[in-house]
Amino acid sequence: xxxxxxxxxxxxxxxxxxxxxxxxxxxxxxxxxxxxxxxxxxxxxxxxxxxxxxxxxxxxxxxxxxxxxxxxxxxxxxxxxxxxxxxxxxxxxxxxxxxxxxxxxxxxxxxxxxxxxxxxxxxxxxxxxxxxxxxxxxxxxxxxxxxxxxxxxxxxxxxxxxxxxxxxxxxxxxxx
Length: 176
Prior knowledge:
DUF4442, 3-stranded antiparallel β-sheet, 6 strands, alpha+beta
């Protein structure tokens, strides 16, 4: 049973359900101990769960911080790629975690990209070819107690702009 704070009006589509299922079985993600519970059809909302188990607990019996960090890793990048489409390039650029409280119970997190955030990203990329965005999320327990806060920095660019910059950098490197 998922906590009430993860309730949403958005719906999963067959396509997003299939993507979520495949991601949960993808070895690199499966190994984090995380599980994707929900992926909205518009890719603007994702819910994750992280349980304490043989794969995720540390020496002192709490959820390993590396599990919290890695289980939350690719989602803003993936969401943006799926929403913005092939005309854009999106990369995870940086991440940081701040631990608030040791976790011995199941944790949850919710990713949400609003229409306003997406419009702002599109406008910034249209104006300058690229932008960076910092996204914040929290791992919380069923009582909404925060156990960790994570920041993810994403780089977003127009694909043509990105390719042009990449070619310029490579070209100048070989002209020495």
